[in-house]
């Protein structure tokens, strides 16, 4: 259930980026854990043909890049069909599916039959504000042929603010906007059913302190990571998601056969019957983000 931690701080890269090939080969950012090549909002409609042309050229000569997960954020099912037909598409780990609905999800999954690709559906439409609509989507995602492909659910913060006619203020985290309540709602709808979620992007490029604070809130909400829109954000996000030594010590105690039912560590109470799932998540975070 914790394999979404391997994404780390995913880096969004427009499909027209001049260094796309180097990024996908892990030459440009050698410590990067995952990259998402965007053919949607980061590419103007008029530029889509050139974006797909470059992506096809890069994939045609792509080789394996150990340690790097590579995804394409497609624009629609037609673009997914085009990318799947490109030589080298088998080098991709999967696809980010934008503005997902049950109907669109069904189209995408039909196109992916017979492939090993994972998917990361993105919650970013007006329906996301409706709990009943999200429960219908959850049921569609839980269908076995879909669930086995879902690595994580992504949350499109900017698109959701657009629905509200808003944009992020400069001086507060998303948790101090109307999206704060929505993020909690989405966690409560999807996490109990085993879905990992990743937090919205932070689109301020000159406020590391606020990014760090928002990432701390993301971690507290149980998100498995946060997407970076600039390479300088990666180290800040991944530093916040590191495991504290006391967390790791507690996790090790919790999985011991002779662990007491209740114990205290670092001023906190732990219960073996309650916190064992948390311990497994701590081990996964430590594996992919490290320990402070």
Topology:
Blueprint lengths: L10 E4 L5 H5 L9 E5 L9 H13 L8 E5 L3 H8 L9 E4 L4 H11 L5 E6 L7 H11 L2 H4 L5 E3 L1 H7 L15 H12 L6 E2 L9 H13 L10 H10 L4 H10 L7 E4 L2 E4 H18 L3
Parallel strand pairs: 1-2, 2-3, 3-4, 4-5, 5-6, 6-7
Antiparallel strand pairs: 8-9
Helix pairs in contact: 3-4, 5-8, 9-10, 11-12
Report on the structure:
The chain is α/β, with parallel strands linked by helices. The chain folds into two domains: 3-241, Phosphoenolpyruvate-binding domains (TIM Barrel); 243-292, no CATH class. The chain is built from twelve helices and nine strands. The strands form two sheets. The chain has a seven-stranded parallel β-sheet with strand order 1-2-3-4-5-6-7. Strands 8-9 form a two-stranded antiparallel sheet. Helix 3 (77-84) links the parallel strand 3 (69-73) and strand 4 (94-97). Helix 5 (131-141) runs parallel beside helix 8 (179-190), helix 9 (208-220) packs across helix 10 (231-240) and helix 11 crosses helix 12. The mean pLDDT is 96.
Q: What is the overall silhouette?
A: globular
Structural class: alpha/beta
- What CATH calls the topology of the largest domain is TIM Barrel
| Helix content, binned percent | 40-55%
Measured by DSSP, the beta-strand proportion falls in: 5-15%
The tally of strands reads 9
Query: What's the domain count?
Result: 2
Main CATH class of the largest domain: Alpha Beta
CATH architecture of the largest domain: Alpha-Beta Barrel
Give the helices and strands as they follow along the chain: EHEHEHEHEHHEHHEHHHEEH
Helical region count? Answer: 12
Rg estimate, integer Å: 19 Å
Distance between the termini: 23 Å
The main pleated sheet reads as: 7 strands, parallel
Q: Quick check: average pLDDT?
A: 96
| Poorly predicted runs | none
Name the CATH superfamily assignment of the largest domain.
Phosphoenolpyruvate-binding domains
How are strands sequenced across the largest beta sheet?
Answer: 1-2-3-4-5-6-7
């Amino acid at each position: 259930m914790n394999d979404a931690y391997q994404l780390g701080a995913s880096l969004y890269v427009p499909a027209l980026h001049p260094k796309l090939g180097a990024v996908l080969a892990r030459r440009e950012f050698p410590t990067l854990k995952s990259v998402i090549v965007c053919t949607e909002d980061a590419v103007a409609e008029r530029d889509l043909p050139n974006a797909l042309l470059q992506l096809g050229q890069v994939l045609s000569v792509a080789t394996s890049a150990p340690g790097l997960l590579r995804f394409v954020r497609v624009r629609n099912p037609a673009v997914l069909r085009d990318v799947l037909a490109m030589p080298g598409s088998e080098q991709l780990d999967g696809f980010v599916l934008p503005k997902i609905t049950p109907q669109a999800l069904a189209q995408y999954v039909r196109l992916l039959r017979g492939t090993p690709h994972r998917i990361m559906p993105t919650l970013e439409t007006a329906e996301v504000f409706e709990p009943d609509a999200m429960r219908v989507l959850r049921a569609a995602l839980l269908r076995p042929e879909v669930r086995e492909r879902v690595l994580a659910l992504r949350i499109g913060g900017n698109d959701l603010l657009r629905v509200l006619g808003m944009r992020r203020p400069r001086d507060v985290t998303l948790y101090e906007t109307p999206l704060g309540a929505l993020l909690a709602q989405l966690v409560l709808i999807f996490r109990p059913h085993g879905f990992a979620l990743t937090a919205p992007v932070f689109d301020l490029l000159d406020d590391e302190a606020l990014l760090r604070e928002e990432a701390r809130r993301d971690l507290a909400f149980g998100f498995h990571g946060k997407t970076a829109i600039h390479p300088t954000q990666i180290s800040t996000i991944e530093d916040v998601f590191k495991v504290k030594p006391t967390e790791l010590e507690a996790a090790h105690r919790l999985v011991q056969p002779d662990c007491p039912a209740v114990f205290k560590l670092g001023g906190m109470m732990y219960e073996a019957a309650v916190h064992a799932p948390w311990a497994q998540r701590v081990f996964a975070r430590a594996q992919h983000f490290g320990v402070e």
